Amino acid sequence: METRANYVLIGAFTLGVIAAAFGFVLWFQSLHSTKLRQPIRIVFEGPVTGLRNGGSVNFNGIRIGEVVSVKLDNPRRVVALAMIDNAPLRNDTQVGLEFQGLTGVAAISLKGGSLDAPPVAPADDGVPTLTADPNALQDITEAVRATLQNINRVVAENQESVKNSLRNIEAFTESLARNTGKIDSIIGKADGVMVKVDSVMSKADNVMTGIDFLAGGKDGGKLAATMESIKELADNLDKRSAGLIADGRRTLGDISRAVNNLDRDPRRLLFGPSNASAPAAAPAAPAAPQGRRQ
């Protein structure tokens, strides 16, 4: 029992140390970020629709901070307090609102400023303060209203088309619901087709393996041996054909000479060859003269 209690104490102490370490890291990071950021007050002379705590503060399109509080100073003035990173803000920096996407969430927009202009002047409490241009806010509000009016007008002009589209979607959904069984059957058939395709592909792989085996793969070379035998047979046929052709040529030559002889002396066909036709003997050479004896 005492051993178990020691284990519990050790585990609790370990968890406490880990929690304290995490808390210290978070505190240090928040303290570090707080030191790096500085407050700035933005005064709006008009409505700030969509601006809320946690909203972005952008300088020339780059996020530099976030809104920490939005409150009313009087019925026509809204004061927003933001914490921002170190940024080159000037006294003539333009302040406005910009809307992110179609969600309607607004962000404080800071733009421009002259290089030789003085920094943002602090208020009585030491917080730098910028005042938004009412005309810019009015332009943004008018743009939002015009956009909403255009959307409303498009929807109103195409109200019948929108209704037909919704009816078509509903009919399509009902058709899908009615034909759920058929769709399942089609999917099942498609699965069967895929199984057959897999079987055909497996057979094709086996065929290709057999062709590779016949063509002289690593397991044998029956096709190569067969082709070698055919080549040897063709070589033998070429040799024999060459001999037959030579014999035929000689036979044709003999026949041609016989025909020519018959054409010159047809009597040879009846009486045989005559003696006259035999070649005459060559005359004897004259005797050499004898010389005088000395």
Oligomer: single chain
- Residue share in helix: 40-55%
Low-pLDDT windows of residues: 276-294
Give the tally of β-strands.
7
- Determine the N-to-C terminus distance: 169 Å
What is the string of helix and strand elements? Answer: HEEEEEEEHHHHH
Q: In what range is the share of β-strand residues?
A: 15-25%
- Residue-averaged pLDDT, rounded? 76
Largest sheet: 7 strands, mixed
Discrete helix count: 6
Strand order of the largest sheet: 5-6-2-3-4-1-7
Name the structural class.
alpha/beta
What gyration radius follows from the Cα positions, in whole Å? 57 Å
Shape: elongated
Question: What can you see in these coordinates?
Answer:
The chain has 294 residues and is α/β, with parallel strands linked by helices. It is built from 6 helices and 7 strands. A 7-stranded mixed sheet has the order 5-6-2-3-4-1-7. A hairpin with a 2-residue loop joins β3 (62-74) and β4 (77-84). The longest helix is centred in the C-terminal third of the chain and has 43 residues, at 222-264. The radius of gyration is 57 Å and the shape is elongated.
